[in-house]
Specification:
Number of strands of chain A: 7
CATH class of chain A: Alpha Beta
Distance between the termini of chain B: 57 Å
Largest interface: A-B, 26 and 38 residues
Pathway (chain B): tRNA modification; 5-methoxycarbonylmethyl-2-thiouridine-tRNA biosynthesis
Distance between the termini of chain A: 29 Å
Number of helices of chain A: 1
Family (chain B): Belongs to the CTU2/NCS2 family.
Largest sheet of chain B: 6 strands, mixed
CATH architecture of the largest domain in chain B: 3-Layer(aba) Sandwich
Number of strands of chain B: 8
Number of helices of chain B: 14
CATH topology of chain A: Ubiquitin-like (UB roll)
CATH superfamily of the largest domain in chain B: HUPs
Largest sheet of chain A: 5 strands, mixed
Strand content of chain B: 5-15%
Order of helices and strands of chain B: HEEHEHEHEHHEHHEEHHHHHH
Radius of gyration of chain A: 12 Å
Subcellular location (chain B): Cytoplasm
Protein name (chain B): Cytoplasmic tRNA 2-thiolation protein 2
Strand content of chain A: 25-35%
Bound molecules: zinc ion
Order of helices and strands of chain A: EEHEEEEE
Number of domains of chain B: 2
CATH topology of the largest domain in chain B: Rossmann fold
CATH architecture of chain A: Roll
Function (chain B): Plays a central role in 2-thiolation of mcm(5)S(2)U at tRNA wobble positions of tRNA(Lys), tRNA(Glu) and tRNA(Gln). May act by forming a heterodimer with NCS6/CTU1 that ligates sulfur from thiocarboxylated URM1 onto the uridine of tRNAs at wobble position.
Number of domains of chain A: 1
Structural class of chain A: mainly beta
Oligomer: heterodimer
Structural class of chain B: alpha/beta
Chain lengths: 97, 370
Amino acid sequence: MHLTLEFAGGAELLFGKQKLQTIDLPDNNTSWTIRTLLIWIRENLLRERPELFIQGDSVRPGILVLVNDTDWELLDGLNYQLKENDNILFVSTLHGG
Amino acid sequence: MCQINEEDDEAFQALKSGTNKGPISRKCVSCDQDACVVVRTADPMCRKCFEEFFIHKFRSTLSKSNVFGRGENVLLAYSGGSSSSALLHLIAEGLSVQARRRLQFQAQVAFIDESSLYSDVVSVREKVTDLITNRLQYPLHIVSIDDNLDKDDDFQQLLLERTKTLTAREELVRRRRLKLLFDIAIREKCTKLITGDNCTKLAAQILSDMAQGKGAHVALECNLTDSRNDLVTIVRPFREITSKEIAMYNRLNSIESLQNADISTMSGPQSSIFQLTETLVNDLQRQFPSTVSTIFRTSDKLEKNIRPERCDLCCCPLDINVDESLISDQNRQKLVHQLFTTSPNSNEPVHVCYACRRLLRDVQPNVQSH
Ligand SMILES: [Zn+2]
Ligand SMILES: [Zn+2]
């Protein structure tokens, strides 16, 4: 599944200062959700300081998640089922990123 | 928080999500269109209503301050971060000829360049100049955080080698930044200083200030108008707007922040008192969306017992009596003059508040060895 990931507000500092990445998730038998995407990000993109991005099975509080420019709170949050070509934006609202 | 095994307890989870968050409707509370953002405690809003709500909150807070005279010179503190980028955007719109209720003041912009303090950070001066001078055409004043300091009192060296904790480092930078902003405002005859402090940041700062003995000043530090300086009044038009609302507004309007790093970047959630309280506030806010406003209302109610004299570090009214506030150590006195007063060689006595007195204990003054 093809997705666009965006990192802003300082979150990009945890991903080699890259603000935009396109990724292809392997085809699973089960569908991908934000929850499983976060595990994939942690294992594949986030090399250092995971605690600055992930807390428990979610993002660190203070990091806003938008799916196609819509607040993930409106879309079931972690349980949102990803669709082909979705754009997922992670914005840190924390000081200093 | 006090439940045992609450993570595993599905019933509890269901109960919590049912009562605390509720099933959020996907329709805008104002117009019934599809919502794109959840604001306040649990209000879904569409893009159009959200932007109206956001601009209205900004403009009504600004008019509540009711302080801007026609043609008054106003200095905008721009850091390049998301809050002040949004602030700049809103003020530029409000000053433009097409604005509905046009703002009547004259804007100038100050940028304190802190890039010399951290390795690995490129200065964004050129981008700032391009935005402010070329595109918005406001007078721009760029001052480096170590401006006016000679080699003997290198600010970076002071912070990295002679300051004990990240907390003390953050607090010194915060005080010096404000001092420089006041200096620019006074020099440019600006009588107001507008900052982009939002309520999420201010709530974290209230808790952090209290933990550092600055309780007497928290009401002032987060007030809409702050008159600690007789010549320049600080105005905080974002004090009722959350960091999430700002992030959303910036995204919808393609407003890019130019600088997201600061002295605490990558230091982790437990590295300083402010980092801890910021993490705490955001953590609480996720579970209990009224946290931030509750902290705010509490701080407004705090009794303060303060004096007319001001602290030489944070510029707030002194909260201890004159004998207690006097710095007797010569080296520390000199340090304060170098970093915080306009007359670096002065021998005038230095008075600081309780919190700044504690802060100075974590800074080793330069014992001249040459
Ligand atoms: Zn609407
Ligand atoms: Zn003070």
